Fold Transcriptional regulator.
Amino acid sequence: MLMADGTTGRTASADDRGVDLAAQLTEVARTLQQQEDAQDTLDEIVRGAVGTIPGAWQAGIITVTGRREVDTVSMTGDVVGEVDQIQYDTGQGPCLEALYAHKIVNVPDLAHETRWPEFADRAHRLGVSSMLSLQLFVRDDDLGALNLYSPDAHAFGEEAEHVGSLFAGHAAVALANARQRDNLVQAVQTRDLIGQAKGILMERHKITGDQAFTVLMRTSQRTNVKLRDLAEVLVRTGELAPSAAR
């Protein structure tokens, strides 16, 4: 294109948009990695999704633990929780479909949706007209899906699906890393608690470290209380079942 000043200009090309998207996703990944724990990461994922994926008005994340317990673990607004609850109540909807069956589920117009009629009718009455659900992770029996909501019909086209898939990939990696960090922190805290509990028993009953650990293990088994929880109570209150201490 010949510009007024005689220079040659050009309109934004697909390559330009690709570079912009790559830069945006890199920034998203950097921001996600900076979060302190898994919950902060989940909250940043839904905020980032609204700012990154075309057409997104609200966003939320649904998880399934052990393929039984379904929960909305993060959301940008109350309408997300309300729509998700309709899915839990009816047992149908795009988010559940994305969790169990497909990686991407696009709902162009809830007013004319026939796959889940009861869900579609109730969700549309809440002001949601279209949705896009993306499988976030599958780990053993645990599942996760990122869900996007719009008050406009046909809000999520091919570009939204493409960007959403890339975003979900970055989000899944960041979430896995955050959960790994959480597990490591919890493991260190558990070790320290058990060490403190053993110290209390050793001092109180003049026993060895191995004997103190045996006391904790037996008490845990008899009371059906996790070893970490038992140690935490002992450290906090100084109390342990007399029969187990003997």
Notes: Residues 185-245 form a domain with the Arc Repressor Mutant, subunit A fold (CATH 1.10.10). The chain has nine helices and five strands. Strands lie at 58-65, 69-75, 104-107, 130-139, 142-150.
